[in-house]
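Next up, sample data:
>
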Amino acid sequence: MKALGGFLSVGLVSTALHYAVMTVAIEALGAPVVLAAATGFLAGAALNYMLNRRFSFASQRPHRQGLPRFALMVSVGVLLNSLLLALGLHLGLHYLPAQVVATGGVMGFNFACMKYWVFNSTPPERRG
């Protein structure tokens, strides 16, 4: 349960960064919504890796193993986020509520990947 609580706390911080970058890119720079959201997602992901590795999962997995896994997870996550956001926009939602729905859709995927694959250093035969 500690991992989930830490994940949610870190998620709030990294999501705030995601939304801040996205909103500034859209409102101040006139960036396309999906591109701005992807940029914000990646900014939040960088912070997310550092904080989740240390605080949520207390991972002992070396960066050379965990970071490539995290990068693959983020690649899938940014694609999923972009697709869900684009669907919300297509359905007529404003970009912020559409992004909230997309964030919710990606959150479970991210938690499962981080807990069981990215940061888990327990050998599969010992996970029971």
